Amino acid sequence: MPLPLELVALAALIMGLGAMLQAAVGFGGALIWVPLLALIDTALVPGPTLMASLALAGAMAYRERGAIQTGQLAVALIGLAVGTVAAAAALTVIARGQLPTVFATLILAGVVLSVAGLRPAVSRASLVVGGIAAGIMGTMAGLHGPPIALVYQSEAGERVRATLGAFFIVCYATALFALNRVGLFGAPEALLGAALMPGVIAGYAASRLLSAELDGRRLRLAILVVSAGSALALLIK
Asked: CA 136, CA 100: separation in Å to the nearest integer?
């Protein structure tokens, strides 16, 4: 049954708020759009939101494409592939009930260590570990962002947003492909995803104002706050 026009408009507004956050900080939009859109209609998640998120990630990567660290991205994507495969295999033999609590604890530990002064250098080792953690958490809990964002917390704003945007293109495209193969993403979901696009466009445009204020210490603080929010969201999920 098609959504009423007023609910479509509300969904697009929510998507816009999440898009503004994600395009400004580099990640975190799912904290806004996933729970709120699920309250409007569960048909909006995950396929339609992933489709809209894919468009947003592409725009983020393109806007600051000169800042994409292609070598670092390739290393992180190798980790992502390893983590995704490992998580998919693990899901066949372990219970999922306690996983959100485990992931939340690990994220909060990372935030606490960062506040205490630990700032991991962006290296092959940290990128592989961050990519693996993103693959595992993304597959098991739907949150790819916090592990890889914590790796980039001390980098320049444009480098964070552009590289994470490119990273998320692969994450979201892979998820959509998987949903399509199991019959959970098709024409109806694509139409709902298209209905969310005006919100993505508006939020992406508005993010320019916010991203201009986020760099250096402010961006690092934003990454830590959004990561902590991700952990809390997992705890109350």
From this structure: 11
The token duo for 222 is 């934003």
Domain count along the chain: 1
pLDDT in tens, the chain (237 residues): 578 899 999 999 999 999 999 999 889 888 888 888 888 898 898 889 999 999 999 999 999 999 999 999 999 999 999 988 888 787 777 665 666 777 788 778 778 877 777 677 899 999 999 999 888 888 777 788 888 988 998 888 899 999 999 999 999 998 888 888 888 899 999 999 999 999 999 999 999 888 777 776 788 888 888 888 888 887 876
- Entry pTM: 0.85
* Spatial distance between the Cα atoms of 53 and 75, rounded to a whole number of angstroms: 23
* Domain housing 29: 5-235
